[in-house]
Known about the structure:
The protein is 64% helix and 0% strand. The chain is built from 6 helices and no strands. It has helices at 6-14, 19-28, 30-40, 49-57, 60-73, 77-87.
Amino acid sequence: MEFSSCKxxxxxxxxxxxxxxxxxxxxxxxHQIMQHVxxxxxxxxxxSDEVWNAIxxxxxxxxxxxxxxxxxxxxxHVGRCFIQDAFGVGIPTHDQKGTD
Length: 100
């Protein structure tokens, strides 16, 4: 992600970017996120039946269901922790306080 100023970088680090920026980030990485979750998901108890079935069918139509569901899930605390672990980066959110 590119930043236009030091202030933008600071806001990113504190997790205080606006929600539209977060959505841009999630959309940019949508395919990677989906692929990573497909490979990481091994327990059907951790996801809904719809998503679990979509993951294992692996068709373009069900891929959209999976990706859209994941994008919604990533805006939760657990989802943010997952993406930090998966990609080694945090995702910007507008509702976290953040710490230095």
